[in-house]
Design goal:
There is one protein chain. This protein has about 325 residues and is an alpha/beta fold. The chain folds into 2 domains: about 230 residues, Aldolase class I (TIM Barrel, Alpha-Beta Barrel); about 70 residues. The protein is built from 16 helices and 9 strands. It has an 8-stranded parallel β-barrel with strand order 1-2-4-5-6-7-8-9. Helix 3 packs parallel to helix 5, helix 5 runs parallel beside helix 6 and helix 12 packs antiparallel against helix 13. The radius of gyration is 20 Å and the shape is globular. It binds flavin mononucleotide.
Length: about 325
C-alpha cells in the first residue's frame, strides 16, 4: 500500500484567511499546500482591490506553498487572475468547480457548472492554451447527480490539469450524507492526471478506512477535520506530536486572536472570524457544546479573552487522537 505523500489544507471562505494561514503554518506540521478561499468578483484588466491583494501577499507561509483559488465561469477572468498570480510569484491557480451553495451554483459557477461539460471544456481549452502557471481543479462528482462525472472525465483527461481534487459528494447534497469514497476510487481509475482526495477525513481511523478503499491515492486534502484538529495532518504523516498539545492549541489561538486584531485594527469583525473557526475547533474539546457556547456568547474582546481563559482552565483538549486510539485498525492487529 502506498504511503501518504502530500496533505493539503482545504480552502474555507471566511476562515482560512491570510492571517489564519500564516499563524497555522507557524504552529503545526504536516501540511504541504495551503489554499486561499476562492476569489470572485474582480474585473479583468483592472487592479485587484486592496483587500484581495492583501490576501495574496504571501506565496508561502513558513515554507508551505500557498495556492490561490478562483471561482469563475469566464476564461478571460481566470486567465487574468492567473496572470496576476504569476506576476506575484505564485506557481499554481486552482479552479473551484465544487462550491455547492445555490447562490453560486444557480449561476452555473462552482459545482453548478458540472452538468455542463461543454462549458468546462471550452473554458479549459482557452485557459490551458495561455496560462503561464500550473492550473489545478477542485470539483465534486456532479451537481444534480453523480452520473455527471461520466461526461466530465474525458473532458478533464484532455487537458494537462496539474492536479484534480475530488470531493465525492454532489452539489445538491451540500454537506449532508457521506463522502462517497467508493465512487472516488472508481472514478480515479479513469483519470490520467495526479489526483487528490477530499472529504470526511476527521481522524486517523477515517484515513485508514479511506486507504483500504483507495490504496493508490497518496494525496489528501483535509478540510473540516483539520479545522477541528490542527494536528491531524501531522498525525496522518506520523510526525511526532508535542507532549502537551492543548498548550500548543492555546498558543495558536492566542496568536490568531492577536494577529486578527492587529490586521483589522481591532474591528469587531475579528470576533465573527474567530467564532466561525471555533465552531470547528470546539469539537475537539471534551465538552464541545460548553466550549463553543462560551465563545459564541462573547460580545466584545474582554468577553472573548475571559472565555478563552475559562476554556483552557476548565476543559481538556482531546483532538482527534481519542477516536484514533479506539479504532485504529493497524494497532488492533498488534502492529
Ligand atoms: C464554510 C465553508 C467554506 C468553504 N469555502 C470553500 C472555498 O472557498 N473554496 C473551496 O474550494 N471549498 C470551500 N469549502 C469546501 C471545503 O474546502 C471542503 O472541500 C469541504 O469541507 C469538504 O472537505 P472535508 O470533508 O474534509 O471538510 C468550504 C466549506 C465550508 C463548510
Amino acid at each position: 500500500m502506498a504511503e501518504l505523500s502530500a496533505v493539503y489544507f482545504a480552502p474555507f471562505q471566511g476562515i482560512t484567511t491570510h492571517i489564519f494561514r500564516k499563524v497555522y503554518a507557524k504552529h503545526f506540521q504536516g501540511v504541504d499546500k495551503l489554499y486561499t478561499p476562492y476569489f470572485s468578483n474582480f474585473e479583468p484588466g483592472h487592479a485587484l482591490s486592496a483587500v484581495k491583494m492583501r490576501s495574496l501577499q504571501n506565496r508561502a507561509e513558513s515554507g508551505i506553498e500557498v495556492v490561490p483559488q478562483v471561482l469563475s465561469k469566464s476564461a478571460e477572468e481566470i486567465l487574468w487572475l492567473a496572470q496576476v498570480c504569476e506576476q506575484l510569484g505564485f506557481r499554481e491557480l486552482n479552479w473551484n468547480l465544487g462550491c455547492p451553495y445555490p447562490q453560486v451554483a444557480n449561476k452555473k459557477r462552482g459545482s453548478g457548472m458540472l452538468p455542463y461539460p461543454g462549458m468546462v471544456d471550452a473554458i479549459l481549452e482557452q485557459v490551458m492554451k495561455s496560462t503561464g502557471i500550473r492550473f489545478s481543479v477542485k470539483c465534486r462528482l456532479g451537481y444534480y447527480s453523480a452520473d455527471e462525472a461520466e461526461a466530465l472525465l474525458p473532458v478533464f483527461n484532455r487537458y494537462p490539469i496539474s492536479e484534480l481534487t475530488i470531493h465525492p459528494r454532489i452539489g445538491k447534497q451540500l454537506y449532508s450524507g457521506e463522502a462517497d469514497m467508493e465512487a472516488f476510487a472508481r472514478i480515479s481509475e479513469g483519470l490520467t492526471m495526479p489526483l487528490a482526495y477530499n472529504g470526511d477525513i476527521f481522524s486517523v481511523s477515517d484515513y485508514f478506512r479511506f486507504r483500504a478503499i483507495s490504496p493508490e491515492t497518496t494525496t489528501l486534502m483535509l478540510g473540516r477535520g483539520l479545522l477541528r484538529d490542527p494536528f491531524l495532518a501531522g498525525l496522518l504523516k506520523g510526525i511526532a506530536q508535542p507532549q502537551n498539545p492543548g498548550e500548543v492549541i492555546r498558543e495558536f489561538t492566542e496568536e490568531l486572536y492577536q494577529s486578527y486584531r492587529y490586521d483589522r485594527n481591532d474591528n469587531p469583525s475579528v470576533l465573527n472570524a474567530l467564532k466561525e473557526y471555533w465552531a470547528y475547533l470546539s469539537l475537539s474539546f471534551d465538552e464541545p457544546v460548553k466550549v463553543f457556547r462560551k465563545i459564541r456568547k462573547s460580545g466584545n474582546f474582554a468577553d472573548y479573552e475571559e472565555a478563552i481563559r475559562l476554556i483552557f482552565n476548565e476543559y481538556r483538549w482531546l483532538g482527534s487522537m481519542q477516536a484514533t486510539r479506539l479504532s485504529d485498525p493497524d494497532r488492533s492487529h498488534g502492529n
